[in-house]
Amino acid sequence: MTEQTKRKSKWLPLESNPDVLNEYAHKLGLSPSWAYTDVFGLDSELLAMVPQPVVSVLLLYPITANNEAYRKEQAQKEEQIIPSDLIFYKQTISNACGTIGLLHSLANSLDTIQVDGPLKSLIEKTKDASPEERARVLEEDNALAEAHQSAGEAGQTRAPRPDEDVKLHFICFSQKNGRLYQLDGRNSSPIDQGPVTNLLEDSAKIIKKYMELDPTETQFSVIALSGRQD
């Protein structure tokens, strides 16, 4: 392992905060016509309040023994349809799950959203690479590391130290070719969650399952990437 890779092996965790994610994503090159927004609840009335169209959903959840077992079970599902143009990044940098989720959210929405700048360059550079090759590109991307560091320091709560044991994790839900995919950089590949009719509502059904596994946990946060309503 090079000194550069060692230096990047741990990043600051990102706060689940739309303002932080928007500043980060727009700095990387996301069009201002699109923005991350809080999803305040998973009931139909609250989902209806989220600006449309929704192109991806981020979930921050507490890692527990229950949902770890569920994650591994889901990752072993048979007869999954994984399209070659679904971009998946493996997470090899500790605490980088926020950036991995952000990249999954943006890179797999390019048929709808507009990106430019460093983000466009990064996606172009990695779109035909393997997940492992993409991970190496991220490890060596100084500009991305600096942007993540700034985002990690921008939250409303105290930023944990990179060496702190953080038990919260970001994953992304995105759609491709009429199917819903769960993208988690700790897995070896995306998880095919079946046909999608409404991205937000279908993602909410899976998120509810995570909540049901650990009903006493409260540190769940859901954020959607949608068309900006100013």
From TrEMBL:
The keyword Protease applies. The record marks Q91 as: Transition state stabilizer. The record marks D184 as: Important for enzyme activity. Residues 10-227 form the UCH catalytic domain. Belongs to the peptidase C12 family. One of its GO terms (cellular component) is cytoplasm. It catalyses: Thiol-dependent hydrolysis of ester, thioester, amide, peptide and isopeptide bonds formed by the C-terminal Gly of ubiquitin (a 76-residue protein attached to proteins as an intracellular targeting signal). Keywords: Hydrolase, Protease, Thiol protease, Ubl conjugation pathway. Pfam families: Peptidase_C12. One of its GO terms (molecular function) is cysteine-type deubiquitinase activity. It comes from Paraglomus brasilianum. GO terms for biological process: protein deubiquitination; ubiquitin-dependent protein catabolic process. Its EC number is 3.4.19.12. Signal peptide: none annotated. The active site is at C97, H169. CDD domains: Peptidase_C12_UCH_L1_L3. This is Ubiquitin carboxyl-terminal hydrolase.
